[in-house]
């Protein structure tokens, strides 16, 4: 159903101003995903992951954390073995990260997680003011 080529997944509850046309369309050999990360927003100050030499790694006290932007390039094999239906993404990501099969880079430009009515309202106000 997913085919054989890597594909981008972009969360429906984010707002970005970045030009995404220069994003990679292929993954490095043996990688299962490439995640875009952003500086930590106020609602997630500790972040989700860290970057080390272009690899997404579990965050440690010595590393600067970043927030997953909700944008990732995935190999269909990343989802192999899972049936249809709802499944949290983070455990799958952590498994692939522990296998060192996830690359990452920082997203440049404005990014907002509009996952709550309050943040959506704040974003609408910001857009109206510009």
TrEMBL record:
This is Mannose-1-phosphate guanylyltransferase. InterPro entries: Nucleotide-diphossugar_trans (IPR029044). Keywords: Nucleotidyltransferase, Transferase. It comes from the Bacteria. One of its GO terms (molecular function) is nucleotidyltransferase activity.
């Amino acid at each position: 159903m997913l085919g054989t080529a890597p594909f981008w997944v972009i969360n429906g509850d984010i707002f970005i101003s970045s030009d995404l046309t220069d994003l990679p369309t292929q993954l490095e050999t043996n990688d299962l995903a490439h995640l875009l990360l952003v500086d930590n927003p106020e609602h997630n100050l500790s972040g989700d992951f860290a970057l080390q030499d272009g690899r997404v790694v579990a965050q440690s006290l010595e590393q600067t954390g970043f927030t997953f932007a909700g944008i990732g390039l995935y190999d269909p094999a990343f989802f192999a073995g899972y049936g249809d239906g709802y499944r949290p993404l983070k455990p799958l990501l952590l498994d692939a990260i522990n296998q060192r099969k996830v690359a990452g880079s920082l997203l440049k430009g404005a990014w907002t997680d509009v996952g709550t009515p309050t943040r959506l309202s704040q974003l609408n106000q910001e857009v109206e003011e510009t």
